[in-house]
Amino acid sequence: xxxxxxxxxxxxxxxxxxxxxxxxxxxxxxxxxxxxxxxxxxxxxxxxxxxxxxxxxxxxxxxxxxxxxxxxxxxxxxxxxxxxxxxxxxxxxxxxxxxxxxxxxxxxxxxxxxxxxxxxxxxxxxxxxxxxxxxxxxxxxxxxxxxxxxxxxxxxxxxxxxxxxxxxxxxxxxxxxxxxxxxxxxxxxxxxxxxxxxxxxxxxxxxxxxxxxxxxxxxxxxxxxxxxxxxxxxxxx
Amino acid sequence: xxxxxxxxxxxxxxxxxxxxxxxxxxxxxxxxxxxxxxxxxxxxxxxxxxxxxxxxxxxxxxxxxxxxxxxxxxxxxxxxxxxxxxxxxxxxxxxxxxxxxxxxxxxxxxxxxxxxxxxxxxxxxxxxxxxxxxxxxxxxxxxxxxxxxxxxxxxxxxxxxxxxxxxxxxxxxxxxxxxxxxxxxxxxxxxxxxxxxxxxxxxxxxxxxxxxxxxxxxxxxxxxxxxxxxxxxxxxx
Lengths: 237, 237
Description:
Distance between the termini of chain A: 35 Å
Largest interface: A-B, 66 and 66 residues
Oligomer: homodimer
Radius of gyration of chain A: 17 Å
């Protein structure tokens, strides 16, 4: 886009999101020249994330304008969002006019529930991305996937890496590099435990156990959302 | 600490903070067993960060209890905070009873203004950390510095790396590795531009230029805060 042109960014703010799914990409995207970021919620009340940090919306679904870039974070609250007709139809409508769509972590499940992943390559949090296939996605286990105008990132912090790629796509590599330097993003994780490909079997097993209940809830929600989407697709035929 | 013991964490929430300085470490620290995180502000109104994302406090300076771990983020608003007697004395008082202190980005300037860095090794955002010497710190240009119970991190995203080290210190390495896997922190930055040691000369120069006005304001604020601290130190003798 021309450097002097505004880029309208709508980021979804739903109850029970994982706040870093949103706040990481926010910090990168908002620094682009011309970025106009809206945090879109059901109403104007502060939205509680999954672990007690609450963020103030800047607009509501009803008031939100169309976006150039639509951003969907994830978190435990996504399991309710994919069954909420208001969120699902909002995403579907917004995506129609957006030039780019960006899903982070389990946010890609909502993209799926809105019918945006049929035949598209996509990724998501390692404990949930296999479920994207139920929405017709070609699932990748990469940290970042770009398929045309669709950007998807793995769990939580993958959104920061991908946001830099989005900036490079929209404003050029030098703009992304400037932002990377501003936020001093030269990561030095103290351990090698950030993906199921490098973590120990013990750590992975403990995490799977801790996530078993969430996984059960999510499987049921996805099955229901996928069935609804199937009917919607039939209805649209 | 014993695994069943609460860890009280007070994170400072002041106007004009850089939200990722707080939200990155928050996402890591809150996942520790027993973590009880408070977001401490001047009053209970939502606090606007430097680029329009507002966060809701959970308590006020007057109501905040003592912390085991005191966390100080940075951002443009730090230049007012280091000259605000209420913030400076809050940090000094809280640090007295805290077992650990953790400064992120330019947050270390406030630790300095509170007199906590005399003779201590510390780091901060690459565009500001040299100023820590005015508060008597031994300045490091590392991304993370641990000096006894004092943790300091470089700019913005360095807080995520350091938060994992803090968890390892407080709850053991396996706890930190579990959290790293939950947030899928296996970074793959698309460019090598995250520090002045790896960014191009062109990128660094552009960033220095863009930050010149902020630097001017900050130098004046730090000189004043350091003088105030000097008088305070004399008064305490």
